[in-house]
Structures are given as C-alpha cells and as structure tokens.
Amino acid sequence: MDALIRRQGFGRKADDGKTEESGSLRFQKEEEPTLGRGGLAGRCGISHSWLMFCMSFVSTGWLTIAAFSVIFRVLNCFLVQSSFVPDEYWQSVEVAHRMAFNYGHLTWEWKEGIRGYGYPLFFAAIYKMLHWISCDSVHLLESGFPIFILNLRQLRSVFKRSFCPPPQIWLPRLLHALVTAFADFKFFRLVGQLEKTDDVKWTLFAHLCSWFTWYSCSRTLSNSVEGALTCLALAYFPLPASKTHSSKKYLSLVALATVIRPTALIVWLPLLVYHFWREENKLRLVVQDYVPIGASFLAFSTLIDSIFYGKWTLVQFNFLKVNVLDGVADLYGTFPWHWYLTQGFPIIMGPHLPFFFHGCYLAFRRHRILFVAIAWTVAIYSLLPHKELRFIYPVLPFCMIFCGVSLAHMRAWRRAAAWGLLASNLLLALYTGLIHQRGVLDVMGHVRVLCHKASEADVLFAMSCHSTPYYSHVHCPLKMRFLECPPDLGRPDYENKSDRFNENPLLWLRTWYPHAPSLPTHLILFDVMEKKISAFLNENNYTKTTDIFHTHFPEGGVGGRIFIYERHRQASLE
Asked: What's the maximum distance between 2 C-alpha atoms anywhere in the chain?
C-alpha cells in the first residue's frame, strides 16, 4: 500500500517546500512537448485539452483508487448477511415495497407523519424499474440476484431456493455500498490534501479496517446514508489546507442528510458555526448559501411528504416533537447519560480506540474542529435518554483521521499494531456480518417458499414485534401476521399485542385462535418461546419443520435459534 500511495502522489511532502500546485505545473510543462499538436493528440485527432484531462486523471491513479473502493464495498455488501436493527427494513424497504406494489406494512411512525418518504422513494423507484421490465415476479425473484443477472437456469439446482434472496433485497443494499464507495473515495482525496503521505496511507488503512463501518455502511438504514453524506460533505467543507472546498456542495449534502434524517444536523452544527466564524463575508454566506439551500431542500422534502401523506406534513417538526419533546423514543429503551462514553463510543471504535486517543494527543491542534464535532455529537446524544450505537456512526470518518495520525507516528511497534488492528477488526466484521443475528433473515427464505401456495398458507410470527423483515423480503401477497407494538399516544383503541403476548403467550394464542379453522398454518418463534406454548402446539397438531441458528448471545425474548412449526392438514378435518 505504501508503494501505491507514493505512486498516486497523495499527501503533502514534509521535505519539499513546493506546493502541489507547483508540482502539477511542472508536470504539465514537462509533458506538453510530447502531447502537442504534432504528438499523440494531433495524430489521433483528439483535442489537446481533452487528452490532457484524461492523462492527468489516469496518471494520478484516481481510477485505481475508485475501482478498489467500489470492489471493496460491493464485497462488503455481500459479506454482511445479518440483521442489525428493525429500522433497516421497516423504515426503508418495507415502505418502498408498499409504495411500488401496493402491499406491505406501515408502522405507527408513518401514520403519525414522523418519517419522510424521500429516502424510501429511491428504493421504490428501483422496485418499479424491476416491475416495468417484468423482473419482479416470485418465479424470477426466487433464482437470486447473481443467478438472475446471469440467467443460467442450469445453476438453479445447485442452490436451494429458500436461501437465494431476490434482487429487490440486494439492489437497495448495493446502492448503499456504491454510495459508500464514492464517499470513501472523496474522503481519501480530502485526507490527501490535509496530511502527509504516510498519514494518508494509515488513515486509509484505519478507515477500511473499521469493523462497525463494515457492519453498517451497506444496510438500508437512514443512519448509513447520513454517514455517507457526512463523509461526502466533509470533502467539500472549508477545512484548512483543503483545496476542494465548496460551500454550495457541502451545504447541499448536509441539507440532504438532514432531510433524510433530521438529527444529521447535530453533527454539522459546530462545523456550520466554524464556517460562519471564519467566513469574511458572513452576510453573503447566510443570504446566498445557508438560507436558499436549506429552504429549497426543506420545501422539496415537504412537497414529497405532503404528496404521499395526502396532506401538508412537515416531517422534521413532527420527528422532533414526537421523539424528543413528547419522549416517545424513550419507550424503546433508555440508558444512563454516560452510556456513549462508557459503552457506545468504545464499541463502535473497537480496537481503534487507543489509536484514536493517541491521535487526538498528537493532532488536536491541527484537527481541533473535527475533535469538537466528535465531542459535541457524543455529548448531545448523551443528553437524550434513548441511545443506540448507530446514532453516532456518522462521526467515525472524523475519528479515523486521528487513528491514521497515530499509526503514522508509531515506529517500533507500528507493524505489530497494524496487524493486530487488522486481525481484530476482521474477526469482528466477519462474525457480526455472517454469523451474529442472521436467523431472522434466513427464516424469510423459508417463508418465501410458501408463495407457491399463498392461498393456503397463513403465517404468524409469534415473537416480539418487528423481529424479522416482512413483505419486502417475501414479495408475494402471502397472508402474514406479526405482533404490533405501537406506543400509547392516547388513542382509545390502543393495544400493544407484543406486550400482551409476552406476558402470557399461551393465553394470548388460545384467546385469538379459539377455533381450528382460524389457526395459522405456520408458526415462527424463538426457541425460548417453545416451552411456554408447547401445550398449544401439541393440542393443535403443530410439528417442528425447521430449526435455524440465530445468535450465540440470546437475550430476553430473543433466543439463539428460530423454529418453524407447521400444522398438519389432518387437524383441520377433525
């Protein structure tokens, strides 16, 4: 990698007083005689300016870095086959599936108008394109994304249909992976302007090694998009020594991130204040950049949301009111104020944590504003009772700059530290991506098989609400039910089926299914629930047909394995 970095010419040279601009001018002057009218450009009939552009692009090696970023993140996408949080399905692809195919489930957030349609609209457009080219049928989707692209029917016998996810599952994630690859590429170019060559190399190494970035970046989460857009916006932010800064570009990306997820503004608030403080013409910045860009994105977002909600809706205000002011988010779990400091931040940093602290010690003055943004984000989220790891994911690229500085300044133990960092992160990335919490995705492959007898099948997910994906991972109008868990917003007909079920699952099942004809044909449950409802399973002639691994770390109502029980036909004739 060291040779690659040197060959691409990234970074500032400590022993050379000349700037990069003077170096590039010297390169052009040396090459001009061979590329003039009598050279290659003149002989091939290619314009001199166009050839110079192509030659400069190829000579700097950006194409190599871009290709590596794309390959790395696409591989990243296909090696993450586990579940993280329910929102990666229920607040994105499930909504998009309903928008495109008119069936799917909308959670309570969409009924209260606190989620924006702009984000799932991208996925809905992908689904519509598949529909227009007649590639959204269950028959075609069963063959799986790679086989669908190749259209090799003879390979179908090699793969079991229940384990071949359809393209509608992979395409949104591939889109995330490509956006992340572009963000990595722009981030690398930015660091090349800010740091020395050695620092650039180790920052890239630290960034690509991050287990939590690997685990999160390709998921269909608004936090993942927020992280990629934050990384892109940073590439255009007017940092000292940055040569690619553009107020309109970075503000547009920040506005887009805020439209998708309003809390993205938390990360950028100190950076916006910093930009305003350093700007000489402050009035011009506010009048020509801040206000027009923010207002235009807010207006466009409001228009989209109002169209799909059927009434004028300001999602950003509703999001703040319901989740923060009304405290509804607290119903989904709270942690003490120090959780991010003692658990959250150390977890997402993982083995990078000591390098981050060391890098802060070395480069605090040079990257003070980035450190302030990290500290500010962690502090603000610490004030909110409801906390999740993914909330502070967007600050990881900021942290990797400090980690790169730390690794670059190590001498005696740098090689050992680098190997240790790579090995430990690789272990975490592969385990969490391929093994931990994968059962809820694997079970949907078995449910998809039931689409062949959709008129007869009736599936009940007898587990806590939103434990699995839904129609977005089945893509057929199969009769399915799950236990809903909306918050109590003061409605007279309020009922939390998930809580009622967990209090006494056997009584709940007997109450809701008193007669044999109404019984579901298939029950899907965690292993911890099996003993609690064994009497119901036996008396209604259910038989375990599938046993799926889920996690090595069961907790509460989430077990280590998932069972599928099927009811015998004879029981319905009695």
From this structure: 93
For residue 439, the tally of other CB atoms under 10 A from its CB is 24
DSSP letter for each residue of 390-410? GGGGGGHHHHHHHHHHHHHH-
Tokens of 298: 């807010």
- As a whole number of angstroms, the distance between CA 416 and CA 256 comes to 41
**40-54, 421-435, 483-497: segment of lowest average pLDDT:** 40-54
Kind and range of the H or E run holding 547: strand 542-549
| Residue 193 near residue 55, CB atoms below 8 Å | no
Could you give the count of Cα atoms lying within 13 Å of 188 in the half-sphere of its Cβ? 25
Tally of CB atoms within 10 A around 533? 21
Average pLDDT over residues 192-207: 89
The pair of structure tokens assigned to 340 is: 């991010």
How many alpha carbons fall within 13 Å on the CB side of residue 317?
Answer: 6
DSSP code of residue 90: I
- CA–CA separation, 357 vs 345, rounded Å? 12
What three-state secondary structure class fits 465? coil
> What are 51-81's pLDDT values in tens digits?
454 444 434 567 888 899 999 999 999 999 9
Q: Supply the DSSP symbol for 313.
A: -
DSSP 139: H
Distance CA 51, CA 40 (A): 9
Q: Enter the tokens of residue 26.
A: 């010297």
pLDDT tens digits for range 549-566: 999 999 988 999 999 999
Write out the two tokens for 374: 């990290």
What backbone torsions phi and psi does residue 494 show, to the nearest 5 degrees?
A: -65, 140
- The residues, any chain, with a CB within 8 Å of residue 562's CB and separated by 6 or more, are 439, 440, 442, 443, 524, 525, 526, 527, 547, 548, 550
